[in-house]
Amino acid sequence: MRIMDSPAATARPRAARPADRPTSSHRRGGAGGGAQRARAAAARLLWTLVTGAFLVFFALPVVWLLLAPTKTDGQIIRDDPFSFGSLDGVVTAWRNLYSFQDGVIVSWLENSAIYAFGALLITLVTSIPAGYGLALTRFAGRRLLLTVTLLVMIMPNVALVLPLYLEMEAVGLTGTIWSVILPFSFFPFGVYLTYIYFSSTIPQDLLSAARLDGCSEWRVFTSIALPLSRPIVALVAFFNFVGNWNNFFLPFVMLPDSAQYPAQVGLNNLLTSSAVFNTSSGVGNQIMRPELALATLVTVVPVLLVFLFSQRSLVSGMLAGATKN
Amino acid sequence: MTAPATLAPGRRSGARGAGDPSRRMGYVFVSGYVVLLLAFGVLPTVYAVWLSISNSRGQLVGLGNFIRTFADYRFLSAFGHVLLYLVIWLGTLMVLVVGLALMLHGRMRRTSAVMRFLYYVPGALAGVASVLLWLIMLDPAASPAGWLLRAFGWETLAQVIAPDHLPVLFTVIAFWTGAGGWIVIMYAALNNIPDEVLEAARIDGAGVVQTALRIQLPLLRKWIAYMLILAFAAGTQLFVEPQLVSTVSWGMISDSWSPNQLSYLYAFQAGDFHGAAALAVNLMVVGLACALVVVFRAGLFERD
Amino acid sequence: MRTNDFPWPRRAASAAVIACSLLAAAACGSADPGPGAAEPSTAAAFSPAPQQAGGEILVWADATRVPAVEQYQKAHPDVKIKIVTYSGNANGANDLQTKVQLFDRTGNGWPDVAFSTTFGDVAWASRNGAQGKQPYAAPVNRGVIEQSVLDGFAKGALDPCTVDGDVYCVRNDLAQNVLWYNKKLMDDFGYEVPTTWEEYQALGEKVAKEHPGYLVGTAGDPWAPEVYFWASQCPASTLTAPRKVTVDLGSDKCTRMAGLLDTLIAAGSISKDSVFGAGFIKEKADKVLMLPGPSWYGQVLFASTFKTPKNQIAAAVPLKFSADPTNYTGNVGGGVWFISSHSKNLKAAADLVTWVTTSNDYQATAGTYPAFKQAATAWLAGQKETGYFAEDVAPAFTEAAGLVWPGWSATQYSQEAIYASTVVPALNEGKTIASMLETWETAIKNKASSLGYTVDSP
């Protein structure tokens, strides 16, 4: 993982590298002897136990989910939860899943990608400068803007569905991809993240110095803030992408045509048509637990890829020199 | 108190008047966002507030819808449920997220990157995607965690999701999906603290715990405040988890367990958007009140 | 310094106080719950939209019924159809209602034809929509579908669709309850299939003693009220007018069934689980001796879910209380088709709905028991051909189809959801159904009045 190459880590004095040095007290103590070493070992054990326990908590259900498509429906229920079925099982499950409405799952993924990436682009273009402006420039209404942002973040979504729908209808956008992309692009969460990041990362005096040097406000933003913004761009991009990818209700309400459905709405259709949940689905239904598990896995892969991708920038760009001066 | 010193230059620039470039550029920077905010945040919210104080014939009814929803037989139980859930949820989230982020940041950074990824993975399994998982997970007979559920003395799905267990159960589900994301944010925030500061603390003889309490936590103040506000708002708007458990248990949980579910029922089962909006405004007011307390205590709107 | 720096919250607070007091004073309308409540609930005369012959029709169906529509399209290539797949309102969803509410507000977007897996939808679809829009569902008996077609449905099949004498939907399938039993096990144990509830209870107690672990029924399914209490003619919700309902769980018709279930639950031969729970499938599925339940249990539950081998499962006619003159049964689900009253091509919509509900081309091979009599005969012949059942299910199914007790009305609220969230958790805490009847009744009444019903207690 790239994180080890990050400037933050390399800037550290060699001796302070924590990877093989369990605690600072150990190093600091020097001649401290056995008691300190025992404490260090205990600390290491505690660390391993706690993080390990949470690892089990977070990962175990996922391991189960990964194994589920290898089995048959009967095996999922009757066999040991962590048994492995066969690779043929995955092939069968995929064939059944793909035969659901002639491979509609592929078009769900395509639609999701269009909505999520489209919105992501607009989000980044609007929220990064906005967060910067709120953090580091002064203008009348700054506090009002922060408060209003907070307010709309807190408003329950259920109440906003009808107004949004009527609004989209009024401008003739219902049924188009914009009825989903535009509301997705409004991402107050990201503006706040950027605001907090810039306000706690870039010291005011750095900007004042740049201004004194005669830099225009725009230059200050592009030459000081933007180079430093890589981690926050990664963070905002990631959370925006995931939020939109997983959003069910808005596309469900806005899109009139099942050909436009994104993965979440599609999955819901898949789920309700399966005999596992829909008792009236009748016979000959191929969608059972293994197929549902596989569909779930297929739809979360993009999210995990984006996570891995953004985790690289998340840490590597942090503190690229700014606060060091 | 460093506030006066850092505020001083800003004050002066604020006094420079409308021709000030910083001020003008401020508007340029936020302009794109403000357009979206007005269109998809403010306008719908204002409309929702209007719905909450009017009736289906468009007449102003004052607080009538609010009074009507207060009297609903489900109102008290729904708000009671969510209050209990909030206490458990916020406590768990704050302590564990900050604690885990500090631990992951403290040592073995190579391992911790992998850990952070694995902690996050459930975050991708939100809503519909996790229905199947919980269907199996909560049934002791087939669950990978069946031994644990049985250790509590629960032999059937119905015993696992008994009414008293629900706030804790929803916390577990919400924590499983949501904590990883917050840990990533907190970790990124911890990375923000210059190494020199931590190094200096170490040289001064501060242990790991003291460094965390005296240096790292105060510097994370804004991030924690932010998390608190959002977690509180998300908690009051609890919807997905009860819906999820209800789906996997064929309806063993009331469809109005949380106020947000009740609001949904008002809007889409009873066709009463006004009552639904009134309930939503209640939640917003509660959320906002708590948010403002946090904002001003943590100085979220101030610049460091 | 701090307080000086933040002058506005205080200002905002006082502004809010003023606003609130103004609001309280300014109330000029009444805060009634919604569109329907203040207006007469009976439907206004049905006035179709201006018709466009040959116009495209929009059809919403669940993934299971989409093939039926596609089959119709293939047989009628000149009809323009646009198909949208949606959840079909399965498993408690109310997607159709949610969307129709929004369409009512904008005045367009309604599907010309919509399938729903639950006839509870009739309750809202037959009422005026938001802002005084006419009911979403067209009364099909008013010149939309010919009476001769409607007469071909099984007796009582269209009852749930009928409000004030008008038929607002067309029934796709029936889900009449029968007594399922495992013929092989019954023969092995030397038991006779009961014909009355009294015999059923006696056999249940006998099974509990002689073959502990074996089951004669389940009470943990959400649809348990529709299996047991409906058959017992318990007035859980009887409509006396379109928005007027009588709820009386204290009636002896209800207590007799509660007593029967409580006895067998205590004996251990009726399970508190749901038949679809993973635990039940894993541990109890092969111990099911008898199971009162809907006609779709045969293929969906025994064949697909339990994977019970061929030649074991059979169905008997619904049980009777010996004190009653006839036996009655209930019904668990059964989908319906709606035709939109806003449709611009009622003719095409009606033709499609008629075809999918009555044509042997689709219904004879459908997953569930057709509501149309002629199609049902063909369907039953098909079931026999599968060779799955130990005995022909046709006699039991056909008889049960005509025995559904009419006093259990289709309401906008779901009896299943109420039972599952109030009674089932209590059962699992060790309480009896008899002790929960009062709580259960209150839950039904509360839910009914929250949806604008007038609730009567006899």
From TrEMBL, chain A:
<protein>
    <submittedName>
        <fullName>Carbohydrate ABC transporter permease</fullName>
    </submittedName>
</protein>
<dbReference type="InterPro" id="IPR000515">
    <property type="entry name" value="MetI-like"/>
</dbReference>
<keyword id="KW-0812">Transmembrane</keyword>
<feature type="domain" description="ABC transmembrane type-1">
    <location>
        <begin position="109"/>
        <end position="310"/>
    </location>
</feature>
<dbReference type="InterPro" id="IPR035906">
    <property type="entry name" value="MetI-like_sf"/>
</dbReference>
<dbReference type="Pfam" id="PF00528">
    <property type="entry name" value="BPD_transp_1"/>
</dbReference>
<keyword id="KW-1003">Cell membrane</keyword>
<comment type="similarity">
    <text>Belongs to the binding-protein-dependent transport system permease family.</text>
</comment>
<feature type="transmembrane region" description="Helical">
    <location>
        <begin position="292"/>
        <end position="309"/>
    </location>
</feature>
<keyword id="KW-0813">Transport</keyword>
<feature type="transmembrane region" description="Helical">
    <location>
        <begin position="144"/>
        <end position="165"/>
    </location>
</feature>
<feature type="transmembrane region" description="Helical">
    <location>
        <begin position="177"/>
        <end position="198"/>
    </location>
</feature>
<keyword id="KW-1133">Transmembrane helix</keyword>
<feature type="region of interest" description="Disordered">
    <location>
        <begin position="1"/>
        <end position="34"/>
    </location>
</feature>
<feature type="transmembrane region" description="Helical">
    <location>
        <begin position="218"/>
        <end position="242"/>
    </location>
</feature>
UniProtKB/TrEMBL annotation, chain B:
<feature type="transmembrane region" description="Helical">
    <location>
        <begin position="26"/>
        <end position="50"/>
    </location>
</feature>
<feature type="transmembrane region" description="Helical">
    <location>
        <begin position="168"/>
        <end position="190"/>
    </location>
</feature>
<keyword id="KW-1003">Cell membrane</keyword>
<keyword id="KW-0813">Transport</keyword>
<keyword id="KW-0812">Transmembrane</keyword>
<protein>
    <submittedName>
        <fullName>Sugar ABC transporter permease</fullName>
    </submittedName>
</protein>
<feature type="region of interest" description="Disordered">
    <location>
        <begin position="1"/>
        <end position="20"/>
    </location>
</feature>
<dbReference type="InterPro" id="IPR000515">
    <property type="entry name" value="MetI-like"/>
</dbReference>
<feature type="transmembrane region" description="Helical">
    <location>
        <begin position="273"/>
        <end position="296"/>
    </location>
</feature>
<feature type="transmembrane region" description="Helical">
    <location>
        <begin position="223"/>
        <end position="240"/>
    </location>
</feature>
<comment type="similarity">
    <text>Belongs to the binding-protein-dependent transport system permease family.</text>
</comment>
<feature type="transmembrane region" description="Helical">
    <location>
        <begin position="117"/>
        <end position="137"/>
    </location>
</feature>
<keyword id="KW-0472">Membrane</keyword>
<feature type="transmembrane region" description="Helical">
    <location>
        <begin position="82"/>
        <end position="105"/>
    </location>
</feature>
<keyword id="KW-1133">Transmembrane helix</keyword>
Automatic annotation (TrEMBL), chain C:
<dbReference type="InterPro" id="IPR050490">
    <property type="entry name" value="Bact_solute-bd_prot1"/>
</dbReference>
<feature type="signal peptide">
    <location>
        <begin position="1"/>
        <end position="26"/>
    </location>
</feature>
<dbReference type="Pfam" id="PF01547">
    <property type="entry name" value="SBP_bac_1"/>
</dbReference>
<dbReference type="InterPro" id="IPR006059">
    <property type="entry name" value="SBP"/>
</dbReference>
<keyword id="KW-0732">Signal</keyword>
<protein>
    <submittedName>
        <fullName>Extracellular solute-binding protein</fullName>
    </submittedName>
</protein>
